[in-house]
Amino acid sequence: MPLISIITASYAPSAEYLPETIKSVEALELPDGWELEWIVQEDGDTPQLSERFVGVDIVRYAANGQQLGIASTRNLALSRASGVLLQALDQDDVLLSDAFLTLIPRFEEHPIHWAIGQADDLLPNGERRPYPSPISFGLQKAGVINAYAGEQGANWPIHGAALMLRAASFRALGGWSGIPYDDELATFAALSQITDGYYDEAITWLYRHHPKQTHRTEGSRALSAECRRFALQRAAILEASGLRFPPETAVGFESHPLDLHVGPAEKDTSL
C-alpha cells in the first residue's frame, strides 16, 4: 500500500496548540489503499513532548537533544520518513479531515510534484477568517508562482506550511533549505520552479495566528528580506540552469528503498 508521511517539527516552549493539531491528524480520512505515518521531531536541549503522543499509534517520535532550528529539525524528521508522499504540518496548524481525500487524488489525475489546498486563518479566539487567493486555483505550471512572487516584492501567494509533496522530488532538492526563517518557502520556490503543481480551491487546512509564532519575533522580521531573497535567487538559478524533472517522475507512487545502512564516521578526529 502507498504510504504518506506527515512531517512535523515540534518545540515545547511554543507547543500550546499541539493537542488540537494531534486531534486533527487523528481525524484524517485516507483514500482507499493508503496508509499514514506521522514523523514528529522535537527540537531543543530538553525534550518535553513525547508524552503528548502516547496512544497516537501512527506517530514516530524522536528528539534532537539539542537546539538545531526548524529547518534542521524538519530534515531530521525527513530522514526517518518512509512515505512516497509527504505532508508538511506545523505543530500549531490544523489539517481538515478530508484534506487527503482532496489532495492525494490530484497526484493521480495530473503529473505533478506538489499540491496544496486553500486555507482559512485560525484566529486566537477560534474564529476562522477567509483568506482570498490572489492567484487562480488549479494546475500551476513550473515557474509561474515564482514569477508572481518576484513581481510582488518576494511575497508568495501560497504558504509552504501545509504542502503535500512527492518525497523523491523533495529529497532530490535537499529537503528544507538551511536558512533561519522561511525554509519551507525557499524549498517550495525551488520545487515549483522546475515542476508543476496543483493549488486546490477546497479549504484543506487552517493556518493558526498566535503571539508565539516564529515569524512574529524581532529576529525573524530583521532577516525576512534576506531569506526571501534567497528563495528568489534559488528559483532564478534553477530557471537559468534549465533543470526539469522528467515526466515519468511525476507518475505513480513507486517507493524507493530507504532502509540504508549507516555506520560510524571513519574520519580521524583525534588531536
UniProtKB/TrEMBL annotation:
* Glycosyltransferase 2-like domain sequence ranges: 5-134
Matches recorded under Pfam families: Glycos_transf_2
The protein's GO terms of the molecular function aspect are: transferase activity
Q: InterPro entries per the record?
A: Glyco_trans_2-like, Nucleotide-diphossugar_trans
**Tagged with keyword Glycoprotein:** no
SUPFAM superfamilies according to UniProt: Nucleotide-diphospho-sugar transferases
- What keywords is this UniProt entry annotated with? Transferase
Q: What protein name is recorded for this chain?
A: Glycosyltransferase
